[in-house]
Amino acid sequence: MDFVILKGLEIDKFLNDVIDLRIKVFREYPYLYDGNLEYEREYFKDFIKDSTARVILVKDADKVVAVATSIALSNAHLCDDTHKPFVEKGYDVERFYYYGEIMIDQDYRNQGISKQIYQLREKEAKSLGFDKLCFATIIKDSDNIPADYFDPNKMWKSMGFVERLDMRVECSWPKIQADGSTKEQTSGLNFWIKEF
């Protein structure tokens, strides 16, 4: 498998693959995101222009099997109050590199791809001058966890990330309901932090 780091207009060349995998994986538990092409294209417009933004693409021959995004936290807009928990805890937002989503095709999971992506992102963060990393995860509904769901918390802890239950934001997105319908719904997300 090939791991490729993309930036700027290089991202645009693979944007359809990135969006397709993002929509596909985020439809799954725990996010249940009902994404659409129009929103996704708009989301990536500013991302492509940002000098700190990166997309890691993992390819098996010509097939894109995993995608991961990252950007300076100061430029990340996950929700309306993305930076607020950091400011409240006295952190300098400018020192953090934010790991956005990591999406792996179901047929390629549990093969060590995540760890390789995290290592590449950490190296990229250091090369850009950041000394702190962060990402956010949804606060899961423990009543609806599928039997085959893999909880990555143990992996993140093994890589030196600490879950900050005291650093939380609320985000809303079109969420697939139990009856198959979609409605805009707010969910809480916790931040995880790693300092070099």
From TrEMBL:
Q: Tell me which residues make up the N-acetyltransferase domain.
A: 4-179
**Highest taxon in the source lineage:** Bacteria
**PROSITE patterns in UniProt:** GNAT
One Pfam family matching this protein: Acetyltransf_1
- Spell out the InterPro entries in the cross-references: Acyl_CoA_acyltransferase, GNAT_dom
Q: Which GO terms describe its molecular function?
A: acyltransferase activity, transferring groups other than amino-acyl groups
Q: What is this protein called?
A: N-acetyltransferase domain-containing protein
- The organism is Candidatus Francisella endociliophora
Q: What is the lineage of its organism?
A: Bacteria, Pseudomonadati, Pseudomonadota, Gammaproteobacteria, Thiotrichales
